Amino acid sequence: MSTGTFVLDDIKRKLKVEQAVRGFFHVMDSEELTLEEGLVAWNMFGFSIFQDLYPEATHPEIQQKMIEFSSNLFNSAK
């Protein structure tokens, strides 16, 4: 694959993520969730994904994995 293909794939991936976030805001609006309630729901959603990825992990281990993932994601955006 050429570098241009990787760039295009990365752009498509980012657009999909942005669409998902906009969709979540739409759900928040339709369910009349406050920002705090939306944040709790988003966190619960993320925790559920990590539970599926690491079914043998304990609650604290999943929390640590989430923190590490967020930290790595934030640092990679710099």
What does this 3D model show about the protein?
This protein is mainly α. It folds into 2 domains: 1-32; 33-78. The chain is 83% helix and 0% strand. The chain is built from 3 helices and no strands. The chain has helices at residues 3-30, 35-53, 59-76. Helix 2 packs across helix 3 (59-76). The two termini are 26 Å apart.
List the helices and strands and how they pair.
Blueprint: H1 3-30, H2 35-53, H3 59-76
Q: Which descriptors apply to this entry?
A:
mainly alpha
Measured on Cα atoms, how large is the radius of gyration? Answer: 16 Å
Strand content: under 5%
Overall shape: it is: globular
Low-confidence stretches: none
* Mean model confidence by pLDDT: 91
Q: What class would the helix/strand composition place it in?
A: mainly alpha
Number of helices: 3
Task: Give the SSE string.
Answer: HHH
Query: Any idea how many domains?
Result: 2
> What kind of sheet is the major sheet?
none
User: How far apart are the termini?
Assistant: 26 Å
- Percent range of helical residues: over 70%
Please count the beta strands (DSSP E, at least 2 residues each): 0
Produce a short descriptive summary:
It contains 3 helices and no strands.
